[in-house]
């Protein structure tokens, strides 16, 4: 077998594998959307859910999902990026650095149910917060930080060394070089890590079952005082998310239209993740062009 035949066979195998992945993704998304989109309506999106009667919506669960996502990323991104900068630019090879890497890899391999049980033990019981948004956000931060750290580190290391050397040669400080030269160049990779972490947060259910709970108090969306009990911005209230609601509906639900609610909520979850990814990449492209002056 000559090299040209081997190359064609290898190319065909890779194309086939890529086609299978795309086919599986399209089939999964198509199945969920075909079953769920017909049940989506304005009332479905703006009506609170019901546990006993038909006609309930997902208003509170949808808001809770985005709010938990926002709080989690607000904590995860700064910590993860700072950790990645330290590992790429400041950490010296040695036992301490190897220990830190081992800890990062260990956190990345933790099952979400274990993180949820840890959150239940620490945030819910030990800190006596009860089921709360802040407890769920901190639990999700635990297994999202490793992703952000590794992606940030790899993105920074992939920046051509000549850029850093040229900046330092001009007398610019190390930190200013990181801030104005390295981070803008590494931004697309960091954004990819943030999108992966955000997608995991939005679809997570196991960890949130034990930290944010399976219920949502009656909310007043006209009350934006974060310290009020019925305010949607209150970080100390329980908040059933969309993914948890889908799980609860399919396992413990007794409403007559359980299939419609489950299918509609699943479709909204998929569409929300897709929309979030598209918007994040669009904004990332704009920011990258602004900081790098690229077209």
Structure, described:
- The protein has 295 residues and is mainly α.
- Helix content is 73%, strand content 0%.
- The protein contains eleven helices and no strands.
- The chain has helices at 3-36, 42-46, 59-90, 95-108, 112-126, 133-157, 161-169, 174-203, 206-209, 242-252, 258-292.
- Helix 4 packs across helix 6 and helix 8 (174-203) runs antiparallel to helix 11 (258-292).
- The longest helix is centred in the last third of the chain and has 35 residues, at 258-292.
- The relative contact order is 0.14.
Shape: globular
Structural category is mainly alpha
E-strand count: 0
The H/E string reads HHHHHHHHHHH
Q: Quote the beta fraction.
A: under 5%
Distance between the termini: 45 Å
**Global Rg:** 23 Å
Q: Could you list the spans in which at least 5 consecutive residues all have pLDDT below 50? A: none
Mean pLDDT, nearest integer? 87
Please estimate the helix content: over 70%
Major sheet: none
Number of helices: 11
Please describe the structure with a list of short key phrases separated by commas or semicolons.
295 residues; mainly alpha; 11 helices; 0% strand
Quick summary:
The chain has 295 residues and is mainly alpha-helical. It contains eleven helices and no strands. It is globular.
Walk me through the topology.
Layout: H1 3-36, H2 42-46, H3 59-90, H4 95-108, H5 112-126, H6 133-157, H7 161-169, H8 174-203, H9 206-209, H10 242-252, H11 258-292
Helix pairs in contact: 1-11, 3-6, 3-8, 4-6, 5-6, 6-8, 7-8, 8-11, 10-11
């Amino acid at each position: 077998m000559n090299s040209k035949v081997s190359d064609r066979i290898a190319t065909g195998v890779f194309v086939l594998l890529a086609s299978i992945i795309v086919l599986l993704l399209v089939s999964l998304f198509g199945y969920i959307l075909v079953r769920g989109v017909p049940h989506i309506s304005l009332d479905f999106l703006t009506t609170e859910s019901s546990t006993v009667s038909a006609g309930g919506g997902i208003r509170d669960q949808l808001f809770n999902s985005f709010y938990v996502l926002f709080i989690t990323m607000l904590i995860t991104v700064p910590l993860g990026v700072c950790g990645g900068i330290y590992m790429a630019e400041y950490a010296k090879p040695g036992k301490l650095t190897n220990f830190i890497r081992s800890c990062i890899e260990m956190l990345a391999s933790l099952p979400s149910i274990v993180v949820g049980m840890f959150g239940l033990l620490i945030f819910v019981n030990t800190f006596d917060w009860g089921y709360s948004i802040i407890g769920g956000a901190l639990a999700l931060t635990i297994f999202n930080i490793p992703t952000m750290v590794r992606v940030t580190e790899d993105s920074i290391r992939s920046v051509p060394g000549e850029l850093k050397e040229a900046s330092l040669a001009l007398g610019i400080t190390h930190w200013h070089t990181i801030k104005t030269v390295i981070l803008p160049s590494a931004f697309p990779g960091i954004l990819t890590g943030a999108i992966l972490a955000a997608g995991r947060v939005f679809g997570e259910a196991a960890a949130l079952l034990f930290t944010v709970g399976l219920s949502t108090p009656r909310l007043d969306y006209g009350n934006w005082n974060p310290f009020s009990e019925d305010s949607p911005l209150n970080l100390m209230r329980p908040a059933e998310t969309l993914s948890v609601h889908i799980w609860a509906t399919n396992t413990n639900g007794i409403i007559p239209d359980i299939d419609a609610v489950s299918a509609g909520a699943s479709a909204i979850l998929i569409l929300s993740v897709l929309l979030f990814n598209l918007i994040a990449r669009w904004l990332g492209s704009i920011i990258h062009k602004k900081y790098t002056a690229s077209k």
